[in-house]
Amino acid sequence: MIISTINLKGGVGKTTTAIALATAAKRDGKDVELYDTDPQSSASLWAMMAEESGDPLPFPVTPANVATVRIAGRKLKGDEDKWLFIDCPPNGRVMDEAADCSDLVVVPTTTGPADIVKTFETSETLGAKNVLYAILLTRIIPNTLSLKQSINELEERNASYFDVQVPSREALKNFFGNAFGEDLYGYEAVYEQLKESIKEDEETYGAN
Ligand SMILES: Nc1ncnc2c1ncn2[C@@H]1O[C@H](COP(=O)(O)OP(=O)(O)OP(=O)(O)O)[C@@H](O)[C@H]1O
Ligand SMILES: [Mg+2]
Question: Mutate which of 4, 16, 45 to test ligand 1's pocket (most atoms within 8 Å of Cβ)?
Fold first, then answer.
């Protein structure tokens, strides 16, 4: 399987989501790798820091580009056992390539209005390309007006989104460079729903 984290907006939780979901997949017994396609190399730096601290990430993080992403797409799209997560920059050809070769694109966003606007731009672009995607609300504060409004907007726009959300957690704010402990801060449930979405899509359109 290939799962990319994509949003045309920066700082919305793409890298955190890629690393958390890759951890969940690894714990689920999958053969996991993460491609870092962002020139900022956040995921690679994250892996390096975790390694140096003696508690490495439980999967390899590999720098990748347009060509290596395309090759991976040919090999791994639809593969049940090997799960490749692709952490993307908020623009550029490598992001487009990752979208095209993904079984599912996760579009993380906060509930902030500026992030939501860019998120709809992202989801419309993915939808127009017939890419299976799901918007993930992260850093949410339960029972707030902004959460309610964001969900209403997702509904109004007929956007595809995860029913489960990732709460804002102080621990995650400073989490860069660490491997996850037992707690995946809500990403366990996101991973389960992600598996369901892929399964439903295969049942509807057939495995490729
Ligand atoms: N659930 C959360 N609760 C609190 N802080 C969070 C949460 N998820 C992510 N963050 C923080 O939000 C910031 C942005 O997250 P992240 O780096 O994952 O976003 P990004 O979309 O990959 O950013 P960029 O566009 O720069 O690559 C980071 O400081 C991260 O620690
Ligand atoms: Mg990032």
Answer: 16
Domain chopping of the chain, boundaries = 2-205
Question: Using the 8-state DSSP alphabet, how is residue 58 labeled?
Answer: S
Residue 134: φ, ψ to 5°: -145, 130
CA–centroid distance, 106 to ligand 1, in Å, is 14
**Architecture of the domain made up of 2-205:** 3-Layer(aba) Sandwich (3.40)
Q: Which amino acid does the sequence have at 132?
A: L
Q: At which residue do the structure tokens 């939780």 appear?
A: 13
pLDDT in tens, the chain (208 residues): 999 999 999 999 999 999 999 999 999 999 999 999 999 999 999 999 999 999 999 999 999 999 999 999 999 999 999 999 999 999 999 999 999 999 999 999 999 999 999 999 999 999 999 999 999 999 999 999 999 999 999 999 999 999 999 999 999 999 999 999 999 999 999 999 999 999 998 888 765 5
pTM of the full structure: 0.97
